[in-house]
Specification:
The complex is a heterodimer of chains A (about 600) and B (about 250). Chain A is an alpha+beta fold and about 600 residues long. Chain A has 16 helices and 18 strands. In chain A, the strands form four sheets. In chain A, strands 1, 2, 6, 7, 8, 9 and 16 form a seven-stranded mixed β-sheet that branches. In chain A, helix 5 packs across helix 15. Chain A is globular and about 70 Å long. Chain B has two domains: about 100 residues, Beta-grasp domain (Ubiquitin-like (UB roll)); about 130 residues, Fumarate Reductase Iron-sulfur Protein, Chain B, domain 2, CATH 1.10.1060. A five-stranded mixed β-sheet of chain B has the order 2-1-5-3-4. In chain B, strands 6-7 form a two-stranded antiparallel sheet. The radius of gyration of chain B is 22 Å and the shape is elongated. The chains are: A alpha+beta (about 600), B alpha+beta (about 250). The interface between A and B is large, with 67 and 60 residues.
């Protein structure tokens, strides 16, 4: 394989956000040689955007909290489609993972007696999110990055994997290009961990960066791994809506955790108008009770603004649709009102939400300590991903692991805020640990020159397509399509026509042409990302057609109710021998009695 | 809707020049939006580095009308739009292409700074007692998003190219964050003096001025580090004591 730069590692990790870095640290600690490949510079991955905090039942603020309550909250939030074992491991292990961050240098906000402070968040029964202001993700990724680079690992920054290489049914490595020079990199590895994050760039309005093109999902799918729960895409209820250039940028749920309320154009707190039965018992009856909850009254129930994200997003859409939206098609999110309740509220807001204060001041000329923000739903997170074993995070392809957003199972039909950072830590660690173990028990597989040659041909194809259209128009058309037809509210007709349109876009994508050379050429990179975007878009659309009910983040106008029968199944997708995407219903794994009892006890 | 012209640097480390692009601009646009529009409509291969587009990741650093800025947080409404907006890459690092520079030197520097070393845990369960005041003291330094604009504007790096002798403001902030961390027990002062060039900074405060996170780099990080180094290395009384001790040591 002359002409390529060759690398050999025990464990290759694709993606260097929270999950990838945590996996790399664990695999290196186990003695494996580790290669860490990331599309951006180290420390810039999407984890840096996480604002609210990391969920862990430390019980520092409310001693009634425990892993059992966290487990039950996670299952309820996921409408019981979660893999129970992942939900259990996550709830049990996240406190240790958070404390470990502190031992590596992370500094989080404190309780008066010097322990890690925790804040309220949607769907969590007690204050559970360890945080530092509203920049928890930055603290976490910087801690992992700084700890990781002193552990000894080879980091390949600005390097994009386009194909996984296989040996028989087993993973054998990966084919990649570096952005800077466009040189091809061939990685041989005994085990590969995918930690590539989500698929938000398939949509027009998203809180996700350019990197979020579903690479891990698509790489795994084309290598023979199964995807699961792809119909469940989280639309975060509060993204910025104005001005147009910032549309979609995240407004942290922490605003609501600190007492922010949602109002429509008539000034009404519309979240009180529709409280789902599953949460009736846990939700405040009055604004007054909601405020008492915010300030820590243990007898008060949480305000309806802190219901799960799927529900809050749909309520905002309803208000806009019925003509009660804000001027730019959203709802009003007001934190300034707390000045009625506490002295020196502006300083308090600036201290607890410094990033939000700065973001609105700089980008929208809004002072959030004085006036409400305009917010609306933005594509934020995909619950679906690579189907993995709960304990090891290995997919059905031997040696291929997945962790974090690109893996499925923990969150079921809807993810609770704060459960993503803890997911990255708990399952990043597990993936790294078991990948290292797999590597120690298996010899290095040979690389197949024909697969490498095919990957090279695929990568170079856009340069040969002289005179075709550029990649940006195809990307934009796909984003519009997904936004309008595979969005928050879905119908069979829209979805079916979306599937046809995706086929047409695949043909256009195969013919896009790029100009310039291979050195740091975003046109070329965008052309190659299209393959992954189209694969995950097809997966999301097929799964959405398949699930004929409304549950969690998946909402069908033609099947508006929850169907108890569908509550027993996950949807699994895979690629058949002819290269077609197939789906089947897979029974949800039955909970053992000890966990059923926990759920019953938690009401 | 209005038409505006952007004068963008195109080229690699060897050849290149400014090229004008005229595009339609809309309400609320930032410089990065303009670059993206140029990229999508007129120059597909225009190289630019970016990620979060919300001032949180520190990827899209460049010089806008000569000022080091994050392109995603620089609004067109704050610039004089009756003349072309100049966008060029950072100057303290080797150019890769167009607006992208090779910032890998920064990562190598960081690897050579001694890692965090916590004291023994305070509690049996392996946890520590840390109070909010302790967190607040270093919080400013920990806001750093590693955009490297402070490195770009530092004359020791930008004009004198002393990258091998001086770690630059970003890493002074990093060392300060470690040295003032409530749990850290490491000692980085000798390295700071001998290998990392703390003496090169002559406090012009350019770094502080360009920091998008408004970290008071010079006053709160660099000057205290300089003071600590001076206290350690040049305090006459301490020096005398060291001499006496050395003389007292049997050969």
């Amino acid at each position: 394989m002359a002409g390529f730069e060759r690398h050999e590692h025990d464990v290759l990790i694709v993606g260097a956000g929270g999950a990838g870095l945590r996996a790399a640290i664990e695999a290196a600690a186990a003695g494996a040689s580790v290669g860490l490949v990331c599309k951006s510079l180290l420390g810039k991955a999407h984890t840096v955007m996480a604002e609210g905090g990391v969920a862990a039942a430390l019980a520092n603020v409310d001693e009634r909290d425990s892993w059992e309550v966290h487990f039950a909250d996670t299952m309820r939030g996921g409408q019981y489609l979660n893999d129970w074992r992942m939900a259990e491991l996550h709830a049990r292990e996240s406190p240790d993972r958070v404390r470990e961050l502190e031992a590596w240098g992370a500094l989080m906000d404190r309780t008066p007696d010097g322990r890690i402070l925790q804040r309220n968040f949607g769907g969590h029964a007690y204050p559970r999110l360890a945080h530092v202001g509203d920049r928890t993700g930055l603290e976490m990724i910087r801690t992992l990055q700084d700890h990781g680079v002193h552990q000894g690992m080879d980091v390949f920054m600005e390097c994009t994997v386009t194909r996984l290489l296989l040996d028989g049914g087993r993973v054998a490595g990966a084919f990649a290009y570096d952005r800077e020079r466009g040189r091809f990199q061939v990685f041989g590895a005994k085990a590969v961990v995918l930690a590539t994050g989500g698929i938000g760039k398939a949509y027009q309005i998203t809180s996700n960066s350019w990197e979020y093109t579903g690479d891990g999902h698509a790489l795994a799918y084309h290598a023979g791994a199964e995807l699961m729960d792809m119909e469940f895409i989280q639309f975060h209820p509060t993204g910025m809506v104005w001005p147009p250039s910032v549309r979609g940028i995240l407004v942290t749920e922490g605003v609501r955790g600190e007492g922010g309320v949602l109002r429509n154009s008539e000034g009404r707190r519309f979240m009180f108008d529709d409280i789902p039965a599953l949460y009736k018992e846990q939700t405040a009856d009055s604004p007054e009770e909601g405020w008492r909850y915010v300030v820590g009254d243990r007898d008060a129930r949480r305000p309806p603004e802190l219901l799960t994200r799927d529900h809050v997003a749909r309520c905002i859409v309803r208000e806009v649709k019925e003509g009660r939206g804000s001027p730019h098609g959203g709802a009003f999110l007001d934190i300034a009102w707390i000045s009625e309740k506490i002295p020196d509220a502006p300083a308090h807001i600036r201290r607890k939400l410094p990033g939000m204060y700065h973001q609105f001041k700089a980008l929208a000329d809004i002072d959030i300590t004085e006036e409400p923000m305009e917010v609306g739903p933005t594509t934020h997170y995909v619950m679906g991903g690579v189907r993995v074993d709960a304990d090891t995070q290995m997919s059905n392809v031997p040696g291929l692991f997945a962790a974090g957003e690109c893996a499925a199972g923990l969150h079921g039909a809807n993810r609770l805020g704060g459960n993503s950072l803890s997911d990255l830590l708990v399952f990043g660690k597990r993936a790294g640990e078991y990948a290292a173990r797999f590597a120690s028990e298996n010899a290095a597989p040979p690389l197949d020159p024909e697969q490498v040659a095919a990957a090279e041909r695929h990568s170079l194809a856009p340069f040969a397509n002289n005179g075709g259209e550029g990649p940006y128009q195809v990307q934009e058309d796909l984003q519009k399509l997904m936004q309008n037809q595979v969005g928050i509210v879905r119908t069979e007709d829209d979805l079916a026509s979306a599937l046809e349109d995706i086929e047409a876009l695949k043909e256009r994508a195969a013919n896009v042409a790029v100009t310039g050379n291979r050195e740091y050429n975003p046109g070329w990179h965008t052309a190659l990302d299209l393959d992954c975007l189209l694969t995950v878009s097809e997966a999301a659309t097929r799964a959405a057609i398949g699930r004929r009910e409304s549950r969690g983040a998946h909402s069908r106008v033609d099947y508006p109710a929850k169907d108890p029968d569908w509550g027993c199944y996950n949807l699994v997708l895979w690629k058949d021998a002819d290269g077609n995407m197939k789906s089947r219903r897979e029974p949800v794994r039955k909970l053992p009695g000890r966990l059923t009892r926990i759920i019953e006890e938690q009401g | 809707m209005a038409e505006s012209t952007f004068r963008v640097w195109r080229g690699d480390g060897e050849t290149g020049g400014f090229q004008d692009y005229t595009i339609e601009t809309t309400t609320g646009m930032v410089v990065l939006d303009a670059v993206h529009r140029i990229q999508a409509e007129q120059a597909n291969d225009l190289a630019v580095r970016w990620n979060c587009k919300a001032g949180r990741c520190g990827s899209c650093s460049a010089e806008v009308n000569g000022m080091p800025k994050l392109m995603c947080m620089t609004r067109l409404s704050d610039l004089p739009m009756d003349e072309p907006v100049t966008i060029e890459p950072m100057k303290a690092f080797p150019l890769v292409r167009d607006l992208v520079t090779d910032v890998s030197w920064n990562y190598r520097v960081k690897e050579n700074i001694a890692a965090f070393q916590p004291r023994e845990p305070d509690n049996e369960d392996g946890t520590w007692e840390i109070f909010q005041e302790d967190v607040d003291r270093v919080m400013e330094f920990r806001k750093c998003i590693e955009c490297f604009l402070c490195q770009d504007v530092c004359h020791v790096l930008r004009d004198h190219h002393l990258h091998e002798e001086f770690i630059g403001p970003r890493f002074m902030v990093h060392v300060a964050a470690l040295e003032m961390h409530p749990l850290d027990t490491g000692d980085r002062l000798e390295t700071l003096r001998k290998d990392q060039g703390v003496g090169y900074c002559n406090i012009t405060k350019c770094c502080t001025k360009v920091c998008p996170e408004t970290i008071t780099i010079t006053d709160n990080a660099i000057i205290p580090l300089k003071e600590r180094v001076v206290d350690r290395a040049y305090d006459p009384l301490a020096k005398l004591l060291r001499v006496v001790r050395r003389k007292g040591t049997p050969a």
